Amino acid sequence: MSDSENFPIDVFPETEEMDLRPGADSCYKCSACDTSCPVAEVDDDFPGPKFQGPEQWRLKRKEDTSVDESVMKCSNCMRCDGACPSGVPLSQMHNTARAEYVSEEMSMLSTEYWRNRILANYGTLARIGSKVPRLTNFVMGNSLVQQVNEKFLGITAEREFPEFATETFVEWFEKRGGSTVQSEDKRVAYFHGDYANYNTPEVAKALVRVFEHYGYEVAVPDQRCSGTPMFANGMMDDARRAAKFNVETFHNLVEDGYDIVCSCTSCSMALRQEYPELFTFDGTAEVAAHTYEALEYLRIYEDVEGDLKGAKPNFPNLAYHAPCHARNQGLDGQAVNLFSELDGLEVTDVGDSCSGISGTYGWKEENYDTSMKIGEEMFEHMEDAPGETGLTECPTCAMQMGHGSGYEIRHPLEVVESALVN
Amino acid sequence: MIESDVLVVGGGLAGGTAALSAAREGADVRLVSHKESTLRHASGLIDVLGYHDGTLLADPFSAVGDMPEGHPYERVGSAAVEAGLDLFDEVAGDLYAGSHTTKNALVPTHGGTVKPTARYPASVAPGLASDDGEMLLVGFETLTDFDAPLAADHLQNAGVPFEVRGVTARFPMLRADAKITRYAKVLDTDEKGIRSQLVEAIEPHLGDATRVGFPAVLGHDHPARVREALADALGADVFEVPSGPPSLPGMRLEDVLFAVLREAGVTIETGNPVVGFEASDGRIDHVAVKRTHQRVPYFADEFVLATGGLVGKGITTSREGVREPVFDLHVPHPENRYDWFEDEAFGDHPFARFGVAVDTDLRPLDGSGAVEYANLRAAGGVLGGADFAAEKSGSGISLATGRVAGRRAAQS
């Protein structure tokens, strides 16, 4: 027999289904992922990412084995991805296992299912709630409503719902007549997501002003939730619908020469990594390849580092927490580094621990205590850092930081806006 | 545009040492590491030279100066090895012991062998084989990497000058597949009085032992506090037996090293690999860092390559040959694959020495012996010429060459 007859051996024939076996086979069980998991460190019911990923993937290849319910304890922080020295696509495995668990094992009549679906589809609720922001804020801030939510839905009463802005970012953007800069060669499309639109429009406005300051035309197309909370809750059909809409919209803009920028690190993570891992719509790869976190984009294409040296933003000392999803994109040191030579304030990194909230995870009544336990280290470091204002890119990390410390939490783009614009 | 004076590729002991050394020379330094630091997998023992020509060395410096041409120690000289250790002592502070002597310490391992090493975590100190106190080794049913009775038998048979017994106990409270970080966390926080529960489980086995060794899970953030509490309650010294990977002593070392790096102003990025480079006129212009999909250029005046050896994937092999994947540097090796190894499992394998060859300035050399790039240096496991597993020289090489590469890069 000659070599050409035998090589290459067709071990994994072409299949329509996603085949994660090569990834599972790359796992040599070093357990690096397990030691980077913030949940396994505090939760005795969670067997860790190595089990949730490659081991469970192998187990469920047998027809009589279903996905273990412990996959719902995974907070989707994706730190295991950053730990694996062998390229095992752990978070992709968790996302697919979780989706299978929800569709095969979880009753659509259960409270848990509907609670998770409601949390995962926060954007839809926000769209309705923000039509009457003051009323919604009043109702959701009502402690009786919070008790009812906890008792009947399992949404913890410990947390205060984020307030809706009286004017959404998109309303503001349309009112001002869109981008004030027109440019053929410097153009970005802004993926603002739901939170910056409905809850923190000041962050979104800062992005627009900063990019316009650097001469960029900013497009703000109609868009859906990035899908992050849907992946995290195994609501893959909802995620697919949202992702499809976003990919179509943003792919068109990419073809017109736009790069995509995000102000939330979980949104940029979803577009860059999770979309191509989970979906195959036309344009998915192109959208992923043109997506950046906003400050990252400016670091690459503009001299934002030089411009910030010695600048004097109107901000107090800041305690910065790097979201896990920023860490996975290699962006965890970015803000502190960029802001290290600002005049008049100190920006302190509060360490590499996870904030513990991980999107919708810490909103669930059964996860609240675990979530606060994970966050303990961060709260302590915030306390030790100079100043009483927090800083982070992630909206839910910001909720957790505010919840645990009582601090007001700001976004790095707001600091850049204050330092450079006007 | 992303730029720095010095760019270090690799986040292990060599990369960290290079970055720190360059920053201390006043350079603006950026360190990029594909994944979290490989220190998380390291035993935490800092060996310099444990064996020479197959003989255990009492003093590593008795032979550091005798290494053959091309060995990393020969390239930098023994003064550089001492300076690397001095830097380490300063970084590690109270977390480590062993700096009081130039001699090797003998540390019992989880397999019951004795490893010669120059520096060791303070948590390991009471367990040294050179002391004569009676020893009890405690393993846990749920941590299968450490079989304490077996390790004790091995040690006793090796002729250690003390009585040693091993028992397997049940670690209270935790489920069978709890992670080592969970053990460390409950001990750090003394959750549900776990320390006393553990002491109660061990006490009946104590006998006349004056020191008790545990698997290395005794706390992550407060290891000294955990040991002290257990020792007070047991009335015996408490120590850790290093094992791994993954390894808490390695993680603790990562914590202190990276904290010192940040204090020194080093910018650290993990999560994205360096996948290519551009060079002109014999100099590296920039490297390409792959961020999910985009290849982002990172510019620097000087570069240090510290990506590790065959295990760390700083050196790769295929049927076609042996490669250095980032800069495609020349890696000397026999053309015939069957000459890469010896038939005996523990033979003197050529592959163990695979790595890039460098000049005395640690600049990689091409096949003709000429410097490949004037502004590129290499440090640590990616260097050829040393069989660090057989010599027990891995950490020393990383410290010595990391420091030299970092300083020279900053001074260039």
List the SSEs and their pairings:
The complex is a heterodimer of chains A (422) and B (412).
Chain A: H1 3-6, H2 21-25, H3 32-35, H4 49-59, H5 79-83, H6 90-104, H7 111-120, H8 122-129, H9 133-140, H10 143-153, H11 169-175, E1 187-191, H12 193-198, H13 201-213, E2 217-219, H14 228-232, H15 236-255, E3 259-262, H16 265-278, H17 284-289, E4 291-293, H18 294-301, H19 304-308, E5 318-320, H20 324-328, H21 334-338, E6 347-349, H22 368-384, E7 389-391, H23 395-405, E8 408-410, H24 412-420
Chain B: E1 2-9, H1 13-24, E2 29-33, E3 51-52, E4 55-56, H2 72-76, H3 78-92, E5 96-97, E6 105-108, E7 114-117, E8 120-121, E9 135-140, H4 148-157, E10 164-169, H5 180-189, H6 194-202, E11 211-215, H7 223-234, E12 237-241, H8 248-263, E13 267-270, E14 274-280, E15 283-291, E16 294-305, E17 316-318, E18 321-323, E19 376-378, H9 388-391, H10 394-411
Parallel strand pairs in B: 1-2, 1-16, 2-13, 9-10, 9-11, 11-12, 16-19
Antiparallel strand pairs in B: 3-4, 5-8, 6-7, 14-15, 15-16, 17-18
Helix pairs in contact in B: 1-8, 1-10, 3-10, 6-7
Mean pLDDT of chain A: 91
Shape of chain A from CA axes?
globular
In total, how many beta strands of chain B? Answer: 19
**End-to-end C-alpha gap of chain B:** 22 Å
In this structure, how is the largest beta sheet of chain B organized? 7 strands, mixed
Query: What is the percent of helical residues of chain A?
Result: 40-55%
Structure summary, number of beta strands of chain A: 8
Radius of gyration of chain B: 22 Å
Overall pLDDT metric of chain B: 96
